[in-house]
Amino acid sequence: MNKIIQEVTNNIIERSKTNRKIYLDMIEQSKFEGMNRNKMGCSNLAHTIAPMSDGEKELLMDMEIANIAIVSAYNDMLSAHEPYKNYPSIIKEELLKNRATAQVAGGVPAMCDGITQGKEGMELSLLSRDNIAMGTAIGLSHNVFDGAVYLGVCDKIVPGLLMGALSFGHLPAVFIPSGPMPSGISNSEKAKKREAFEQGEINKDELLKVEAQSYHSCGTCTFFGTANSNQMLLEMMGLQLPNGSFVNTNTPLRTELTKEASIQILNLVKKDGYALADIIDEKSFVNAIVGLMATGGSTNHSIHLIAMAKIAGITLTWDDFDAISKVTPLLCKMYPNGSLDVNHFRDAGGMGVVISQLIKAGLVHNDVKTIMGVGLDDYCVEPKLIDSKLVFQKDCNISRNDEVISSIENPYSKEGGLKLLKGNIGRSVIKTSALKESQLYIKAPAIVFETQSALKEAFSRGELNKDFIAVVKFQGPKANGMPELHGLLPIMGLIQNQGFKVAIVTDGRMSGASGKVPSAIHLTPEAVEGGMINNIRNGDMLCLDVKNGKLALEESSEELIKRIKNNKVELNNGITYGRFLFNTIRENISNAELGATIFKDYEGKE
Length: 606
Known about the structure:
By secondary structure, this protein is an alpha/beta fold. Helix content is 38%, strand content 14%. Among the domains are: 3-33 and 66-182 and 217-325, no CATH class; 418-571, 3-Layer(bba) Sandwich (Glucose Oxidase, domain 1), CATH 3.50.30.80. It is built from 23 helices and 16 strands. Strands 9-10-14-13-12-11-15-16 form an eight-stranded mixed β-sheet. Strands 2-1-3-4 form a four-stranded parallel β-sheet, with helices on both faces. A hairpin with a 2-residue loop joins strand 5 (369-370) and strand 6. The longest helix has 19 residues, at 252-270. The radius of gyration is 24 Å and the shape is globular. Residues 403-596 form the Dihydroxy-acid/6-phosphogluconate dehydratase C-terminal domain. Pfam families: ILV_EDD_C (PF24877), ILVD_EDD_N (PF00920). GO terms for molecular function: 4 iron, 4 sulfur cluster binding; metal ion binding; phosphogluconate dehydratase activity.
């Protein structure tokens, strides 16, 4: 086992002792009280079975029969979630064949960040994660279930589902993906067209045709953003079937994997020691962080993993992420970190290759429990249909395409995809997996903006054709829900391509599809809390030194003290489009490094 990985794991275990014990004691109490239909009143049970078929009713009245909850994030607006419309019937049918029942316990909201990018709705995106966690708990609160399956793929949905599932950690749990859409137009061509639009070379109608060739069917978007990073994490944590995340939607193999997942939850219900809380522990989260670094995954998980771990009584910090990144080589190159997508990744061997390589290097804990048993060796396989039968073949330890998956011996980078930055304006993270060597050090004057639109307007006026670092403040969780600022990237990328050295510093987020422009994000303390980012002025010299983990404002201490004394925060939150309903969440949310969540730990701390 890599010494640094073991040391980080030991540190997490030590600092989490108190909260972890409280959580596990809570789970033991839930197990003891348990779901027992024998304890239910006849009226309660009658309500439970009222909408079921006669055959299902007969089964469920047998108190020994397993009843499985389905918590679904289905809607037919998200391409990744539209396939879920058929999953409940598939799951129920498969369970009935095995003398078990299933019920849709609840639905949770699922918004598409791709639709709300740069719009008011994006201010609800991050906040929806905790709402999803609570919705999951509400669905499970009927307490008539022996286990649960969770249907979700996209950005905040999987973290929210897992947080809710962990609150019912006494139940076995299996997550079931929907799979990606087939590849469309190449990502490089799409990026060129977006830049052409910003330059006025093509009109909106032409751009729409290009975008529609990229996002063209049901299934997950094919770039390695937050949605597909979610699927990678679930496999690293052993909560999905092995190497099945990136099997295309609406294919025979995808359907058989869904059936197999239905059987697997039933198997877990029948086994002792395989409830969700038995599977997920400190080592699970370390494995997840290693996977994030090795694949160059979404920066959003430097927030979500902390929030998810907190529900399990585990305390993660950005220092853990940074230490793990320094010893984890980058093994994957998927867009935006490369030109190929998750379908190419799957065809090269997918997660089976990645996990095999990480085990080989001693970078993951291979003694963890998963839904398949003990150890991640079960995940070094590839699902296939042979004579219409699902099999998991152990033949994918080496990449079949080194343009998208490399090896431990010859990685794309010796370090992982994220880096912690520290300095006199706070702490932040930066995605490094898509950056060139020349972008790792930038010293330039600041240009300060309070909105995305202000930067776009400055670009339209021709004011940004120079070296500069864009400081975009009042974008943190307390200010406006911490929206992604992905809409800035076509402009900043265009300026960068003209030969100017540019970067972004913000207390907001970037999309999982970002990374080609150096971006110090999730800066804490945020501006609305009086953070130093609110004291940066136009023309101030900023130094972004990625290799040394430094982000600094080069002003004298005397000047900074004077600015701090005069620090004023004037913020006018929008109330339209339902944003006022989330005022209480913004007022009580923690900072990005603490998971940007309203949930406190079990000691009552943020």
